[in-house]
Recover the amino acids of this structure.
């Protein structure tokens, strides 16, 4: 099996990312698999719990959802949601439909 390496970032004492050529490092993805899997499960759970709280309103309800998020691996340990840009790193797209027969 080929080696898959992922770039890691250094977090300062405040937990902020430090990205620069001298602070870049990489690790084998297989060594970080448990952290990545845990982050995916946690993000999925948050999205599912939030969506389960939505209810039909005036004949409209959420019929589907798409969740997109980015992960950044810290050089020490741990996974953080990506902060690669000023835009949101946790995006949810909802499809809302009106039920037939609703006024």
């Amino acid at each position: 099996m080929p080696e898959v390496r992922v770039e890691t970032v250094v977090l300062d004492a405040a937990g902020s990312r430090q990205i620069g050529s001298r602070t870049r490092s990489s690790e084998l993805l297989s060594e970080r698999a448990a952290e990545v899997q845990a982050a995916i499960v946690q993000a999925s759970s948050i999205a599912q719990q939030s969506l389960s709280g939505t209810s039909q309103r005036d004949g409209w309800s959420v019929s589907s959802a798409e969740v997109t998020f980015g992960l950044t691996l810290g050089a020490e340990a741990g996974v953080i949601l990506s902060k690669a840009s000023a835009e949101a790193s946790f995006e949810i797209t909802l499809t809302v439909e009106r039920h037939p027969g609703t006024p």
Notes: Confidence is low (pLDDT under 50) at residues 83-88. The chain has one helix and seven strands.
